[in-house]
Each structure stands twice: as C-alpha cells, then as structure tokens.
Amino acid sequence: MKVSPIHAAVLEALADDDGRSIHGIASAIDEKPETVTGAAFALEEAGLVQVEEVDRTTVSLTAEGTTYEGEGLPERRLYAAVVESVGTETPVALGDVLAEADIAGEEIDIALSNLARKGLGAIDSGELTVVADPPPDTEASALAAIAADDTDGIDAAVLDQLERRNLISVSTHTERTVTLSSAGAAAVEEGLEVAEQLGPVTPELLTSEDWKQAEFRPYNVTADPPLEIGGRVHPLRQMAERVKDVLIGMGFREMDGPHVDADFWINDCLFMPQDHPARTHWDRFALEQPERIDKLPDELVDRVEAAHREGVGEDGEGYRSPWDEDFARALALRGHTTSLSARYLSGRAIGELEPPQRFFSVEKVYRNDTLDATHLLEFFQIEGWVMADALSVRDLMGTFTEFYEHFGITDLEFKPHYNPYTEPSFELFGTHPRTGELIEIGNSGIFRPEMLEPLGVEADVMAWGLALERLLMLVTGAEDIRDVHGTLVDLEYLRTEEAIY
Amino acid sequence: MPVVDVDPDELRTLVGTEEKTDDELIADLFALGLEFEGRNEAGKFQLEFAPDRLDRLSVEGVARSLRYQYGLERGVYVPSVGRSNWTIEVDPSVPTARPYVTGAVARDVSLTEDTLTSLIQLQEKLHETMGRSRAKGAIGLHDLTMLQGDDPLEDGGASVTYRGISGDGGQFVPLESSEAMTPARVLEAHPTGQAYAGVVADYESFPAIYDEIGLFSFPPIINGQRTEVTTGTRDLFIELTGTDEWTIEKMLTIVCYALDARGASIESVTVEYPDRTHRSPDLERDRKHVSHARIERTLGIELTPDDVIDLLERAGLDAVREEDTDTYAVEVPPYRVDVLHPVDLVDDVGRAYGFNDLKPRYPEVGTVGTRHNRSRFERVVRELLVGLGFEDLLNFHLISERANFDRIGVEPTDDAVGGGQPVTISEPYSEEYEIVRTWALPSLCLVLENNTHRAYPQRLCDIGLVASVDRDERLKVTEHRTVAGVIATHDTSFEDAAAPLAAICRRFGLSLTTQPTTHPSFIDGRAATIDVGTGPIGIVGELHPRVVTEFDVEVPVAAFEVRLDGLQSAVESHNE
Q1: Would you identify the CATH topology of the domain A63-166?
Q2: Which of A24, A81, B196, B518 could form a disulfide with A100 if both were Cys (CB 3.0 to 4.6 A apart)?
Q3: Closest residue in chain A to residue B474, using alpha carbons only
Q4: Domain A63-166 and domain A237-259+334-496 have a common topology
Q5: Contact A393/B396, CB-based, under 8 Å?
Q6: What ipTM does the predicted assembly reach?
Q7: What is the pLDDT of residues B166-182, one digit of tens each?
C-alpha cells in the first residue's frame, strides 16, 4: 500500500500496540500532536484505524489549595489550636486562640464558617468551644490525594465542595486513543510503501524538473486563512465620492472654499438676521482666536445691510433687527457650506457667473451641539445649487427625485418649511430601511431676492443642503453615525463594514 | 425650532371637525409644515415647526390654519376692536434700552385650566421666538379687575404708568412668592429673576409699571401677585414692553387673535408717549403685490386668475386683480409676521395648492459637471495610499489642545511640522474638541490609542484639513490639506514610512529626497524632511518612544505627514 510518510509513521507506531494515545504516538515518531491528530482522522476515514474519544477530567490544586495542603486547612488549624490551649468542650475567647493558630485576615471567616459547617465546634458570644472526637476530615484527605495525583477514590460531593472553596480546579479534555483496524493491521503486515510528498513549491523545484515525478502533499484547504487587513477608502468617504460622481454626471461643478469664514459669508449674505437664534453662540462655532477679520468688501456690505434693514423691491420689508458690520466680520467655523454658494454667487470665488450654472460641494460643516446618535459636531453637507432664468419648485423636486434615485431612494417626502434665505422652502424626508422611521435628510428651496439681489444675481437660483451621513444611514441602514466618523472609530468597523457600490 | 403642545380634542373642537382621527390630523398638520414629534405625558401632540408662522404657537392659531386648509374659512379675518377707557402713560424716566410699551384689554374671557395653560404656553413661546428670550419683547398678562387706574383728568378714564426706577425704587409681591421684594431683590432671590437677570443687566434703570395702588409689573422679568391671572379671571389687561415697537405690536396682535378665537372681546388702550399718542392693538391689514407670471414661474404650473384668487383666499388672504395688469393686490392679516416680499405670497399659493400635488420634473438646463482640481488630486493620492495597504480614516478636524501639542511633544511656537498658533473655539462643548488641528498625526495617534486591542499591523492614513492662525491672511487663518500616515506593527522601522512615500512620488514622476532633521515627536537620527524638488513639504520618521507610550501603544510606529498642496504644486511644475 502506498501512503504518505506521516501516515506510514503513524501506522507503524501502532503496529505493536493495542492502542496508543495521540501524545504517545507524537512523542514516538517525533511529530506535533496536531499533525498526528490530522493523520489519525485521515486514516480513520480510509478505514485503517479507529479513533476512540474519551473525555477526561483533570483535577489540580489552585494556589490556595496548595497552600492549605501544606499548612493545613484554616478550620483544622483553628481546631488544633483550641485543643492545644484549652482542650475540647471548653469555651475559649476567640481573639486569644486566633493569634495562637496564626490565623488572620480573610482566613478568619474561612476558618469559622467551615469549622461550624464540619461540626468541629461552635461560637457563642465571642467564645469558641470545640467538640471531642470530630468526624474524619474528607476534604483534607482529598487535598492530600490530589497533591499525590491519586484522584480516583475521591467522592464527587467532596470535589464539588473543594471547587466551591476555590481550592481545586477541575478541567475536562478529550483524550483520543488510536487503534489499528484489521484492514490497517493487514496493510502494515503487507508492508507500506512511502510516497514522497512535496511541501511548498520552490524556485529550486521548478528549475530542477523534480516536480514531474513529485506528489504534492495536500494542504488543509478548509482551514481559516490568516487575517489580511488591506487598505480601503473610508465608507463615508466612499459615499462622498459616489455623491460627487452622481452630481458631476448631473452637470454640477465642484466648489471649494474656507472652513473658517466671516459671519458675513456664512449668515449675513444669506439674509439671516443678526439676532436670529441660530446666530447665538450656543449653536455657532465662534472663534476665540482669531476673532474677526479686518475688512469686508464695502459695496457688498452696503447692499447686504440695506436688504436686511429695508428688504428689496417695491413692497419689500426688512427685518426689525439690529445690523452691525462688526458682527459680520466675526469669524466662525462654517455651520453650512451655503457660505461657499454665497461666495460663488457673488462672483468673488471664480468670477461673475452667467446662467445657466450648476454647482455643488460635499464638504465638512460644523455645529456646536451635543453629540448623539444622529448629531455630530462635524459632518458632511452636500450643498448644491442651480442658476437659470426661470426655475420652479417642480424643477427642485425633479432634481432631488433624480439624485436620490441613484441611491435607490424613491419614497421622498417634501414638507413645506421655512428658511430665512429660501422661499418656498422644503424639508426632505426619507424612510430608514431598518427602523422604518421617517428621517429628515435635507433642506432646500429657492433663494430669496433679499439674498440674490445684493449678490448681484438676476436669475433664479434653487439650492439645497443635504446631510451625507443621513444619506449613508438610508443606504446602509446604519443607526448611529458616531461609529463612522472621528478618532473614536473602531478599526473593526472599518475592517468589517460591508462594501457598497 | 419651536415645539408647541396641542390637545387633539381641543383642536378638533376649535376646527369643527370632530370626525377627524388623530392620524388624519397628523397628516394634515405635516402638510401645513407642523411636524408631529410625539405626545407629552398628558397625551397632547407635540408639534415642531419652523419659526415663520408664529401665529401658530397656540392651539387657536393651529386651528385657524387648519380651518383655512379645509376650506372652512377663507379670506382675511380681523377681529373687531372696542375702545376701553385705559391709558398707558409713558414716563420720561423709562430706560432708554427698553423704550417701547403697548397693550390691550380683553373682556369676557372664560378660562379653564386647559385654556389658561394654552395661553401661558403662547406667551412663553412668543418670548422664546419673536421676543428673543424676552430681550426684544415680553408680555405681561393681568387680571384687569385687580388694577386700579389713576384718573387724573377725572373723565372716567383709567391709566397706568410705564417708568424707570432704581433697584430699590419700589416693591411688590411677585408671582410665586409671598414676600414683598424690590426689583434688585427679585433679580437676586426669585428663581425667575435669576433666570432673566441677564436681560436687564446693562439697563441704567429697571422697567416698572404702576397703577394707583403701586408697582404691579416688573417687565420683562415678572408680574406682581396682586394681578395674577387665574381660572376665575374674566377681564384681562395685557401689556408688552420691548426694544422694537413693531415686534411688540405683532406679539400683541397674535395674543389678541388667540383670545378672540376663545370668544373674548378685544378693546384698545391708548399709549401716551411724551411726544405722541397711539391706540393699540393696531390690527391694520398690510398690502403687497404679486404678479401672475411670478406665481406660475415659481410653482411651475399654469393657473387662471380665478384659481389664484381662490388659492390666496384659502391661504387666509384677500386678493383683487388690478385692472389691465397681471398683478394682484393682496391683503395680509396683521398676525402674519413672515410676509416680507411677494415671494412669500407665492409660497402661500403653493401651500394652498398643495406642494405634494406638484409633479417633479427635471429642469431642462444644460451644464457640464467637473471636479475641483484640488479634490481630483486628493482622490488620486488617497487611492494610491489605499493601494499601498493604508486604511483611510475620517478624523474630526477639531481636537483637544492637549492631544495636538502636549501629548505629542510639539509646542505652538515650534518651527516644525505641527507647530503654529491654533484656531481656537470660544465656547467649546467639550475639551476634546476645542481647536482646529494644526496637523493630522495627533488624530492618527488617538486612533492608534483607541484601537490597541485590534489586530496589527495598523497602517492608517488621513487626508484632511489642518489650519493655523496667520495674521497676514485676509481671513487671518491659513488652511491646507495634509496627507498623514502611521504604520504600527511589531517590527516597524523608518523605511516602512519612507517606502510608501517614495512609491507615491514615483507614480507622479517625482523623486523623493529625505534629509536628516530633528523634530520633537520623532527619534533624533531617524527623522527626515520630505522634499520632492520644491523645498521641504513634510516629515517622515520613527515616532519617539515617549510619544508611542504616551498613546499607550506597545509596538513601534513610523509616520509621515506631508502637505497635499505642496505635493500637487510639485506635480504640476513637473508636468509643465
């Protein structure tokens, strides 16, 4: 019979025996036990051996058990000390005898409770009395037997008690015994032919042409491969890239601009009154350093201030709110990327723009708010706008419907809304795929004349800000966006998050 | 955004639609822009809405909007206003910081526990919104029968006086107290006084309203107990003070409409300033003009003039088409504070039509899309790093000063990568996020610190924003994108960080030169500047064990950080 070297070695090691343990075989043929186990099972499959499995219990002393085995159990030591000092059936003050017995700390409780449990004595009003002729101590003798590795005769109840006292540990493992089957015995009898099997394919093997005669040792191809991590683009970044691709496909150009900006661009150009609650320090990321810029474009400031104070157009009205250029020069981390839209629309980013235009950005915005499952201090806003001579609410809705269809979201709901800088305005809602909850995914509208006129725009402009994280939640079913973003990220999340496309 | 609690049963009664189920009401309210947030412990709807239609801050206002929505009412409604014999005299002593006062009388009010709660809610919500937390305008409600007016002219008239007094210039027993207090004492010892003390902190004197008996109101802080409104109150005296006259008149108007809806009769009072006199409330309609073409253009639908007039009336407005023009003259009721421009009327037409009945269409506007140059380059670099086995991270741009500097061993004054004065937040919620990071390696070290229980190797990269103060810049801040990477495993060395950098440079046709340098975060002799032909643009090396152990990492870490714009300009000049 032709067999592999390891199989031949195992069979031969069994030839003279009635059965051997895996470890016995391994040391006999100088192989690793796991290699022998693998070979034994393969040989069993081929009908050449039988493998018997027996669960064995091993009992061993814990550190505490070893100590007591040497010094004696605390209750026995206490008993002996009492007998030594006053004899049996005579009360003695507990304090005196503890010192005598050299028992202190937590051993006191152990000694007293076990003394009572074993019927060696009793305590009454701080005095201890021990009995004459105590019952034999099965626990002490069991400890000695375990130390001597002779565990067979120990009563199971005693073992349980010792395990509860944490003096021994009991573990179970499977022991396998391998025996030649009659077919195996016959094969050994007939003589085994060892087939030379090759391990790794090496450059030497390839050049030597030895491979032409060789037989390849089979590998365990069902085993788990080693961990490979590899690189990947962050899932939220991937979503940002996908959004950019979709918007570029829809004809949008990308904007870029400052994260730290003057309130003028973040709020005043958007017709946000200076006493608007969103401009108070609680929501806004006002800066301590640097505090404000020196100069704003004069003419634009005048036009923006006039819109705030008087409104625009014949019937126009302004806000009854204070307006101060100093306040407009204050610096903040932008709360929305509409600041970029204001810069581009004003002609100050890349020059005057004539209709038609489409622009977008997918960039970070900042909100001074408490962190929770759906609110982060920093998140990505998908900002977009379209400029044309005539645009309607239907064009706005059609643009969203088109955009969200690219992400498989077809159940959009539009809620009429209010923004200081758009009219009409809409909030957008989508249904979360896992929770079924209607979640707000963005805000949109047609820019007001009070915003556009000062910026020098004569055409219609429709615009929106959508939360990228919310889109990710809708697409992947994620429920907590804190897992995704920031230095608290769990690498395991990045390594196991399903790829999306 | 404001949240208002509304009892659905009360709403049904006020609207006159007893058959509507809660779910139907919720759907109809959503269409109005009022979002159902849940129920409070008493089972009332909690409705959230944007702060434009402040007339909807009460159940009466919400009911009025629903009546228009259902077509149960149309056109402008203005309550009739009788004339009371009350006058508010404005004394020259009023604080210059709070010069305006107004008021009204409401008679035959029937208040139950519920309607009183609703009225107080309206008052509080108006304070939060238009009143800017009472700073811009505040309302005081009083039981009229408890007031005793002066009658200096002996003509049967009654008057109260708005004046300014010093902190101990008068005293009264405020609400929720049994002790007579001066204004100064209220600010110091009364819970409401403590809460709103900031509003009057800079005033040169305190606002006070007196009747013949004495001080009965300390606006905008608290009323006196003598005139407390209870369920037994039949006649109300309403006073408002503030910093903007239009604002307090509109707040008063909204309160008067709510009381009128409860069956009260509104009566005017005379407000007598030293130099002028007027009667309030002023329930005059406003007039705006909007063109037919503008409505059709913005809504994207065709309408007949009759349609437009019908829709405007259903929005609670009155409209007539002006002869020989395509323009409508539209009458706006006085409780509307949100109509600044004709576009606001277009929105009303759209809401009355039903925005969700409009058919979306893709605009026929031809444009060409492109990426920004910087973002295109950033994407390529990120993909190269990922191809080299880096896990791309998305760290916050905000960080603690301690992580950005102290823990990694760099100081703001260091002339080294990571040095520079940071942009600081003035009132951060958390010290974990108090400055904009000046470099990205601290963020990556934090990720290593938080993931020591995860499998190594950890090859992490971060392409993101960093910033520092630069007084020469127009915005006083210089921002740029940075490319940072760390490699952490049991046998990391300098070359593990230098090799991927060299690989990226090769892809762009650049050659990488590394020159020895020193840096407080790196081991001396194992740190080098990165130069791709345009001068130093970054650093690469082995992080010092001081830094590695500071972040609780137990394997060696090699790192690099290089300016993305520096790399891009080298690539662009190489390509020229």
Answers
A1: Arc Repressor Mutant, subunit A (1.10.10)
A2: A81
A3: A293
A4: no
A5: no
A6: 0.91
A7: 999 999 999 999 899 99
